[in-house]
Design brief:
Blueprint: H1 3-27, E1 37-44, E2 47-54, E3 65-71, H2 85-93, E4 97-101, H3 114-129, H4 131-134, E5 136-146, H5 148-157, E6 177-181, H6 201-204, E7 217-222, H7 230-242, E8 247-252, H8 265-279
Parallel strand pairs: 3-4, 3-5, 5-6, 6-7, 7-8
Antiparallel strand pairs: 1-2, 2-4
Helix pairs in contact: 3-5
Length: about 280
C-alpha cells in the first residue's frame, strides 16, 4: 500500500473516531446515567474514596428513605462504581437512595483485601452517622454487591473486620439486610479465590464468621457459576438459618458468573430484590 493510501486510510479512521466513541458510550448508557452527587466518605493517604449517590424518587411522603449501599466486583483488583449505576437507577426510582461505593483496590498479586473490607465498613458507618443529612433511615440500610463486592457486603454483614482486642474501637455497624450477587462467600483452601488471600483467608471469609447478628440475606446466583457454586450458597444460608437468621437463594438456571449485569437478568434480579426488601418492610 502506497504512502498516500495510508494517509487516506488514517484520515478516514480519525474522522470516524468521534462517531465510534459516541456509539460505544451510548451502547453502555454512559451518557444517560449519572449520579446526583458524589460524596467523599474516607481518605486513605493520597486517595479519597467516594459514594456515588442516586437519590430516592417517587416517594409519597417526606420521611427518610431506605438506603441501598452497593459494591462493585472485579476480584478486588479492578472495577468501578459505574458498574452498578443501572441497579442504582432502578432502585432510586423505587424510592430507595442508592449508593454505589468506591473502595480501595489492590493492584498487586496477591491483593491485600483487608483494606477493601475496612473501606466497606467505613462506607456503612458513614451512612449511619450521616443519615439525617442524607435524609435516609439509618435502620433501613441494605448492603449489597456483586462477586468481590458481594464478598465485601457479606463480610460487613458478618461483622468483619473483627475488633477483638481493640476495646477502644467501636463495634462494626451491621446493615438491616444484605443482597449478594454471586458473592465470594468461602475463601478456604480449595476454593477458586483462595490463592489470592491464602495468608489471611480466615480473617475475611464470611462463611467462617456467621453469627446470630447476620441480617436477612438474599443470594442471587447462576446455576452454572464456576466461581461460586450452588453448594457454597446453600452452606452459607444453612449457617445463617442454623443461628436463627433468614436467608434466601434466587437461582437462575444455566447462568454463569456476572449474569445479573445483562438483560433480561438485570431486570429479573432487580424485581426479585425489590420483592425481598418489601417483604422486610423496606
Amino acid at each position: 500500500m502506497t504512502t498516500k493510501y495510508w494517509y487516506l486510510l488514517s484520515g478516514i479512521l480519525l474522522g470516524l473516531m468521534p462517531l465510534l466513541l459516541f456509539v460505544a458510550i451510548k451502547k453502555f448508557d454512559l451518557l444517560d446515567i449519572r449520579p446526583d452527587q458524589k460524596i467523599v466518605y474516607q481518605s486513605n493517604g493520597a486517595q479519597t474514596l467516594t459514594l456515588h449517590v442516586f437519590e430516592a424518587r417517587n416517594r409519597t411522603d417526606d420521611s427518610p428513605a431506605p438506603a441501598l449501599l452497593l459494591f462493585h466486583g472485579g476480584r478486588w483488583l479492578y472495577g468501578n462504581p459505574e458498574q452498578l449505576y443501572r441497579q442504582c437507577q432502578f432502585f432510586a426510582a423505587q424510592g430507595f437512595t442508592c449508593f454505589s461505593a468506591q473502595y480501595r483496590l489492590a493492584p498487586t498479586t496477591p491483593p491485600d483485601v483487608r483494606g477493601a473490607v475496612a473501606d466497606a465498613q467505613s462506607a456503612l458507618r458513614y451512612l449511619v452517622e450521616h443519615a439525617a443529612k442524607l435524609h435516609i433511615d439509618a435502620a433501613k440500610i441494605t448492603i449489597g454487591g456483586g462477586s468481590a463486592g458481594g464478598h465485601l457486603a457479606a463480610a460487613v454483614g458478618s461483622g468483619l473486620p473483627l475488633t477483638a482486642g481493640a476495646a477502644s474501637r467501636p463495634a462494626p455497624h451491621r446493615p438491616a439486610a444484605q443482597i449478594l450477587y454471586n458473592p465470594m462467600l468461602d475463601l478456604a483452601p480449595g476454593t477458586p479465590d483462595h490463592h489470592l488471600v491464602k495468608d489471611y483467608w480466615k480473617d475475611i471469609s464470611p462463611l467462617h464468621h456467621l453469627n446470630s447478628a447476620v441480617p436477612p440475606t438474599l443470594i442471587l446466583l447462576g446455576s452454572q457459576d464456576p466461581e461460586v457454586t450452588v453448594s457454597t450458597a446453600k452452606a452459607f444460608c444453612h449457617g445463617i438459618e442454623s443461628v436463627g437468621g433468614r436467608c434466601e437463594i434466587a437461582l437462575y438456571e444455566g447462568q454463569s458468573h456476572g449474569f445479573y449485569n445483562h438483560q433480561p437478568y438485570r431486570e429479573k434480579t432487580n424485581v426479585r430484590i425489590l420483592e425481598f426488601l418489601r417483604a422486610l418492610n423496606h
